[in-house]
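Thread: quick sanity check before group meeting

JM: Hey all, I'm pulling together slides for Thursday and realized we never actually wrote out the predicted structure for the chain we discussed last week. Dropping the sequence here so it's in one place. If anyone has concerns about the input, flag it before I start.
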Amino acid sequence: MCQNAGVCDEKQNFVTNLYYKGRKPGYVSRQNDSISNLRNKNLIFAFLNEEGMSDSQKPIPHYLIEKRNIINLILFTAFFALVFINLYAPFGSDKWFDLTKIEFFTFSSLVILLGVLVVVISRVLMYLVSKRRVITLLMFFLWIAAEIFAMALFYALFEKFALHDKREFIHLINISARSTALVLLLPYSVSWLYLSWHDKKEQIRILAEGNNTPDMIPFYDDRSVLKFSVKRDGLLYLEASENYITICYLNKGKVSKYLLRSTMKKLEENFAGTNIIRCHRSYMVNFEKVKVIRKEKEGLKLELDNPEVMDIPLSKTYLTNVMQNFAKFSEA
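JM (edit): ok, ran it. Output follows.
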């Protein structure tokens, strides 16, 4: 027995509409191909992380592992470290030897370059690993912690054995770790903020250009990188399979498919308010392409206007939303 009278009445009206205009029972024709524009704000915030996934398991932004950005980060970190050691002089480094300022600058530069080798090796390894698997935020932060420890160990060993420091090695590690954390975390943070700002600016630029071609629908992967665009009237449906989305579309009149690493939840948020509607746990459909809604023994089906495309299932969970959109199209 139905617990919600409003929903029951709406579903009953839907079944009644299956006899619309004297057609055979089980068929409904869509009267209009109208469509609302994509909401730009949803695309601008396409980089937002998927709801329900643990923050630590979300992938890091793509710009953190791009080769050019890695090189710039290493150079910026080396420059910052050089300025830091000359101004702050950790470990009392300016008192190690009786050196002039120019001699100390030269000596500290060599030490910094040796220490930065740790970052170079680390980032090369990170870049190679990113080609094989997705690096999550948790993995990224642990990686940075390992960099700090490795560089702190290097400087502590240098202090202990090269400069014959008499203090306990654990004490040297502790001091070195604090100084190294400043040397690395500050430029890392500044770089991340700058790259994030630059990436958002680029996204906005793409969207602005897209406004000149409103027929194109952009698709972004799980790292918010624009991977695929298709004309609005060429998109048929989207099918989800774990962390991948199959985009079914028309290419020169033929049905083609493109595999995108993303989630149905994210795409549903991006396409909110458009004619691309979720109709099933695993499917979204371009409602502009829906020809009839048919009731079968297995349940409701959406038949598209292309005979080569399979019928798309319509589940009870999304029935109300589909009905509301159907009414919207019918009224237009």
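AS: nice. DSSP finds eight helices and ten strands in the chain. The chain has a mean pLDDT of 77.
JM: adding both to the slides.
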